[in-house]
Amino acid sequence: MSLYVYVLQGKGLLVKDACFVLQVGKHKSKTRVFRNNSNHVWNEEFVFRVHGNNDQQELVVSVFNHDDVDDFGSFFNGSGDLVGRVQIPVWSVAAEQNQTLPPTWFSLEKPMTGKFINMDCGKILLSLSLRRKSDKSSTNHIVYPNSNVNEEYKESEGPTRIIS
C-alpha cells in the first residue's frame, strides 16, 4: 500500500526560505525551497510505501528555515533551524472515507529549542490518500494546481499527534 502526500501550501510560516521534510519510517523526502517568498504554494506530491499495521506508522512533516542549512544532507540529519513539526498517524487516513483525507490545515507544533521556540509556527495544507498498487483510481483530483490561499479548507480537529 502507498501513502500519497500532497503538500499544497503554507500560511503564517515564520520564514521566507522554507522547506518541508517528510518522513514515514526510515524514508524521507523534501520539498523544493522557496527563496525570499512569503507566499508558500508547493503543490508537490510524495509517495511513501507503508506496510502491514498502519497503527504503528506515522507521517512526520517538519518545516525548516533553508538559510540555516548548508547542504541537502543536513536536512536529513536534523541540523538547521526547525520552524515547526506535525505528526499524522497513517491509521487516521485509513479511517477516512475512501482512505483519503481531503485538504486540511494542520497547525505546526513549536520546537522545543531554537529561535522559534515561543512563536506561532504557522499552518500547512496537506491532503493524504492511501492507495493499493492495484487501485486504478486517479489521485489527481486531490491536487489543486492553482491553489488559492483564500479558499477555505478543513481545519485539523483530531487525529494528528504533535511531537517535539
From TrEMBL:
SMART domains: C2. InterPro entries: At1g03370/At5g50170-like (IPR044511), C2_dom (IPR000008), C2_domain_sf (IPR035892). Gene3D superfamilies: C2 domain. It comes from the Eukaryota. PROSITE patterns: C2. SUPFAM superfamilies: C2 domain (Calcium/lipid-binding domain, CaLB) (SSF49562). Residues 1-103 form the C2 domain. This is C2 AND GRAM DOMAIN-CONTAINING PROTEIN. It comes from Salix purpurea (Purple osier willow).
